[in-house]
């Protein structure tokens, strides 16, 4: 698997938290309730639920790209 990069469009995120519920090993929510990637997990580190978490976002604020 080629390296991946996770991007969260912070201006689009509504803080629904579906990503953190689906892939808690990659995503969390900040103090304001908006999604963020856990430190050191910016590449997804092979999480099997990474793509499912991106699909679960109700406003499509998460993108995963191959590097």
TL;DR of this structure?
The chain has about 70 residues and is of the alpha+beta class. The chain is built from two helices and four strands.
Could you please describe the fold and organization of this structure?
This is Ferredoxin. Its cofactor is [3Fe-4S] cluster. One of its GO terms (molecular function) is electron transfer activity. Ferredoxins are iron-sulfur proteins that transfer electrons in a wide variety of metabolic reactions. The chain has a single domain, classed as 2-Layer Sandwich (Alpha-Beta Plaits). Helices cover 18% and strands 24% of the residues. The strands form two sheets. Strands 1-4 form a two-stranded antiparallel ribbon. The chain is globular, with a radius of gyration of 11 Å.
| Shape, principal axes of CA atoms | globular
In this structure, how is the largest beta sheet organized?
2 strands, antiparallel
CATH fold-level topology: Alpha-Beta Plaits
Mean pLDDT: 92
Strand content: 15-25%
- Helix and strand sequence: EHEEHE
Number of domains: 1
Compute the number of strand runs.
Answer: 4
Side by side, the strands of the main sheet go 1-4
pLDDT below 50 for ≥5 consecutive residues: which ranges? none
Give the C-level CATH assignment.
Answer: Alpha Beta
Question: Count of helices?
Answer: 2
Q: How would you classify the helix and strand content by structural class?
A: alpha+beta
Q: Helix proportion of residues, in percent?
A: 10-25%
Any idea what the radius of gyration is?
Answer: 11 Å
């Amino acid at each position: 698997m080629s390296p991946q990069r996770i991007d969260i469009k912070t201006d689009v995120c509504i803080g629904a938290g579906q990503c953190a519920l689906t892939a808690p090993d990659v995503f969390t929510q900040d103090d304001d309730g908006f999604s963020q990637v856990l430190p050191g997990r910016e590449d997804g580190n092979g999480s099997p639920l990474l793509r499912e978490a991106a699909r679960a976002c109700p406003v499509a604020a998460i993108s995963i790209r191959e590097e």
